[in-house]
Amino acid sequence: MKQKIRCAILGTGHGHAAGKLRVLQGSDDWEFAGVCEPDPAWRARREREAAFAGVRWLSEADVLGDPSLRMVAVESEVRQLVDLGQKVIDAGKHLHLDKPAGVSLPAFGALLDAANRKGLIVQMGYMFRYNTGFDLIRQAVREGWLGHVHYLHGTINSIYDAAHRRTLDFHPGGMMFELAGHLIDILVLLMGRPRRVTPFMRHDGAFDDQLTDNTLAVLEFDRAVAVIESSALEVGSSARRHFEVLGDAGSVVLQPLEPPAVRLCLGESRGGYQSGWQDVAVPNIPRYVRDLQELARCIRGEQEFPYSKEHDLTMHETLLRACGVEE
């Protein structure tokens, strides 16, 4: 029987915090010690929520000073993610860091360098790395089913009320910064670093705030172009979230992203699939389950961690470029 790995959550202001808590509590891989929320306002808010009922509340010293805790998931508001993540690395613990990786590329790079020196894993909270629909897309590109890939297009929209918008308008990238990293992560995995990124940051909603709520970026590669969109203004947006890859020998469309629904077109039979358009059934595995399973295997030494610090840094640099920010 495998030994469970002791872990904790640090910070709760992220939109993924409750979901990560649920998976860690119910996992056979993890022994969940508790939650630390350094911000009194967030602590009071979370204590009233059903998702956090019955959790053991820890101090920051409890989390960082306990040598039996081997992994900490940082789930704070975005502006605190890297600072808290750096504390976790300094304490000698593996890190699950939710996304995006802060407002400063040098600060994120310093965190990754420190983790690398200490032999610690930093797993980013880009959950579509573990989405079975994206698995198929990555396989199709990797094995050449689609021929020369020349166009990629992704949309990840939402709709936010005035209160939620105010929590996001601190960064000039707005919705691109908030959501589009999920798709840019996949894009960089598929295509590498774009040679040119042209952002379009617009405020088109009828709100008295500074949120760039209607955003688009054009990313150019050698012999390929990609378009990534993110808006805070679309009703029913989850059903229309999509990612598509077009090649000269086939195309693949994932829509919606969750639960994953895949359409594949091939010029000739490849990978066990027939020529022409077809629906491809893929498993619908809940968010965060595969991510945290893989992290546990890597901590135990059962597999190598598959995402390099070079990828994570290039991905975050690309996201910032797509937001109109360069460092």
UniProtKB/TrEMBL annotation:
It comes from the Bacteria. The lineage of its organism: Bacteria, Candidatus Handelsmaniibacteriota. Residues 136-252 form the GFO/IDH/MocA-like oxidoreductase domain. InterPro entries: Gfo/Idh/MocA-like_OxRdtase_N (IPR000683), Gfo/Idh/MocA_oxidoreduct (IPR051317), GFO_IDH_MocA-like_dom (IPR055170), NAD(P)-bd_dom_sf (IPR036291). One of its GO terms (molecular function) is nucleotide binding. This is Gfo/Idh/MocA family oxidoreductase. Keywords: Oxidoreductase. Residues 5-126 form the Gfo/Idh/MocA-like oxidoreductase N-terminal domain. Pfam families: GFO_IDH_MocA (PF01408), GFO_IDH_MocA_C3 (PF22725). Belongs to the Gfo/Idh/MocA family.
